[in-house]
């Protein structure tokens, strides 16, 4: 599932390709019965407008303007935003298509239908209503240590809980804990302030590096877990073996030797 850095990469694409162009139409794609998309009236609100700015909070992308309305996109498991130019055809699994003036188009692709697109008035109100915690790249060290020091669940599950902190999912919680040498099943409240501060710093470094790499995992360092995230693979840090376990309903990958 796309997490903070994948969504940030998509936001940057939107910012580069789709700003300051008048929207002429917003159309539904095919096979859209089981996906949440804006209805006729909501789509009509976007027509005649331009996106003049973008934002991101956790795994949510926003495009809109000072006076609104805004479009918010959640990519779900497999969604993506694909800008292209007519007369090229939209990609397969396009669920929503925005026609800008001229040839520019923006497709929301979503093969597994778990994403959504909504039209909203204001991103800050929306973030508050949805109950998302602070974005993982915005939360400061002290706030992080305080929030996680109180939680008795497994650290991996705690990192993925969007109401506590938004943006981290399965991949980047595993990577962060791998680089800190912490077992994903360790109870957050048992780690202590120094370890939690280290997790905060490593998490930021990981997220920023993935954004810099444009979420192209092959460009990330060879000794990262993501490059060998497979049961039985050799740990490039200590020679241990990568193993897996269910934590917080997801499959965690970690090294059985250096992650205590
Ligand atoms: Zn190891």
From TrEMBL:
<keyword id="KW-0238">DNA-binding</keyword>
<feature type="domain" description="Formamidopyrimidine-DNA glycosylase catalytic">
    <location>
        <begin position="2"/>
        <end position="115"/>
    </location>
</feature>
<keyword id="KW-0456">Lyase</keyword>
<dbReference type="Pfam" id="PF01149">
    <property type="entry name" value="Fapy_DNA_glyco"/>
</dbReference>
<dbReference type="InterPro" id="IPR000214">
    <property type="entry name" value="Znf_DNA_glyclase/AP_lyase"/>
</dbReference>
<dbReference type="GO" id="GO:0003906">
    <property type="term" value="F:DNA-(apurinic or apyrimidinic site) endonuclease activity"/>
</dbReference>
<keyword id="KW-0227">DNA damage</keyword>
<keyword id="KW-0511">Multifunctional enzyme</keyword>
<dbReference type="Pfam" id="PF06831">
    <property type="entry name" value="H2TH"/>
</dbReference>
<dbReference type="InterPro" id="IPR015886">
    <property type="entry name" value="H2TH_FPG"/>
</dbReference>
<dbReference type="InterPro" id="IPR010979">
    <property type="entry name" value="Ribosomal_uS13-like_H2TH"/>
</dbReference>
<keyword id="KW-0479">Metal-binding</keyword>
<keyword id="KW-0378">Hydrolase</keyword>
<dbReference type="Pfam" id="PF06827">
    <property type="entry name" value="zf-FPG_IleRS"/>
</dbReference>
<keyword id="KW-0234">DNA repair</keyword>
<dbReference type="GO" id="GO:0016829">
    <property type="term" value="F:lyase activity"/>
</dbReference>
<feature type="domain" description="FPG-type">
    <location>
        <begin position="226"/>
        <end position="260"/>
    </location>
</feature>
<dbReference type="InterPro" id="IPR010663">
    <property type="entry name" value="Znf_FPG/IleRS"/>
</dbReference>
<dbReference type="GO" id="GO:0008534">
    <property type="term" value="F:oxidized purine nucleobase lesion DNA N-glycosylase activity"/>
</dbReference>
<dbReference type="GO" id="GO:0003684">
    <property type="term" value="F:damaged DNA binding"/>
</dbReference>
<protein>
    <submittedName>
        <fullName>DNA-formamidopyrimidine glycosylase</fullName>
    </submittedName>
</protein>
<dbReference type="InterPro" id="IPR035937">
    <property type="entry name" value="FPG_N"/>
</dbReference>
<keyword id="KW-0863">Zinc-finger</keyword>
<comment type="similarity">
    <text>Belongs to the FPG family.</text>
</comment>
<dbReference type="GO" id="GO:0006284">
    <property type="term" value="P:base-excision repair"/>
</dbReference>
<keyword id="KW-0326">Glycosidase</keyword>
<dbReference type="InterPro" id="IPR012319">
    <property type="entry name" value="FPG_cat"/>
</dbReference>
<keyword id="KW-0862">Zinc</keyword>
<dbReference type="GO" id="GO:0008270">
    <property type="term" value="F:zinc ion binding"/>
</dbReference>
